[in-house]
Amino acid sequence: MIFNSIEFLIFFPAVMLIYFYIPQKLKTYWLLAASYYFYMCWNVKYILLLLMSTIITYAAALMMEHIRTHKKLIVAGSFITNLSILAAFKYYNFFSDAIAELFYDLGIAVSIPRFDVLLPVGISFYIFQALGYTMDVYRGEVEAEKNFVNYALFVSFFPQLVAGPIERTKNLLHQIKEPHYFEEKRVAYGLQLMVWGLFKKIVIADKAAILVDTVYGNYHVYGGWELVIATVLFAVQIYCDFSSYSDIAIGAAQVMGFTLMQNFRQPYFSQSVSEFWRRWHISLSTWFRDYLYIPLGGGRCKPLRHYMNLMIVFLVSGLWHGANWTYVIWGGINGCYQVIENFLKHRFGFKLSSETFGGKVFRMSGTFLLINFSWIFFRADNLRAALGIIKRMFSVNNPWIFFDGSLGGMGLDFKDLFVLFLSLEILAFVSILQYLGIQIRECISRQNIVFRYMVYVMSVVFIIIFGIYGAAYDATSFIYFQF
Hints:
Largest sheet: none
Structural class: mainly alpha
Radius of gyration: 23 Å
């Protein structure tokens, strides 16, 4: 089941209506049952992995409170067990192939059995959330949760279960224990955010994906400006695809009375790569900061060690995204960006932001170009394809495509291109308002009821008319589900 499916359109209202009408003491049990059903819609047997991770981290936290002399061993056991589950399903084939290739280069033929199973959806997200809880208990920042049902819901809460945000113990766990009632304004805010997320996903991301898939899938046919356009649109696609999931998750949780952490803050308005990573996938960036970067020493060490810490974090982040060398290289590129920025800042006093409008635009543009270059490796099927795309991008000069109709041969006809660029203008306008701190939902709520419902109806109609549908449409195609 996915947010942009008919099944979810039936599932969520049913869950919400029952949730508000049943007694308070049953609400947690109902949400837990709904969350487990939501996850089992992909693959019933993988619910055992979710349950296993939940039991291991729940038991580890209780043991740390009762056996204080062995807390390090207990937390290490929790991490090793959970990361072993993650490694077995996500990285076994990647590392076994790498080992086999290494021995092949040495002239030794090695046959390593493959582990051919489907990757459990959302496994990286819920395991990291559970491990974050374990570390919080180890550090004494929270007490171990005694109620297993409460903790199981914390790990499996369906709005953010399979693609985040990766929630923190301090933010979500206490909300599960609090009473939640129907509030019209809060429900309206949540539904508005869900509609905005569906607009970004169905109208922008899925439409851009058609062009990106066409060009990147046949990069040897295209070149120059065609690859530039596809790369820029991939930056749009991945942002709208992933942030839309976060918007829908946050909105769905808000409808039921829960507040999830913000996961994106207009990242493409960043004036430096370091700022970009404070605005992009915030829940994962802060997870790595708190549970990997700071334990490694963070920035409170000698420059060389600091740079090494940055590279480790970004290489691990790249590997977290997928078992492919392209992701590792993508992480390494962003790590290099960070190292260079820090070196320039500390060695030459290089400022990472500007107060003037021209300076801001220049730095935003430069950051956007750097991030776009790294996205090539993220999107390419393999390293050879990434290098081939870069080569053709710079070796083929074809500016005439903007005038001879070639833009209509990149997967989208001119009607769809017009709708896409119109939608991008709407996205840019809303993003600018958000960047300036203007609360759009507050502005809408202050209008009269006729205007509000006109906005709601027009938004839904626009999505229905211009969204991507049909028999060939893959309703499960949120990019981050593969991670």
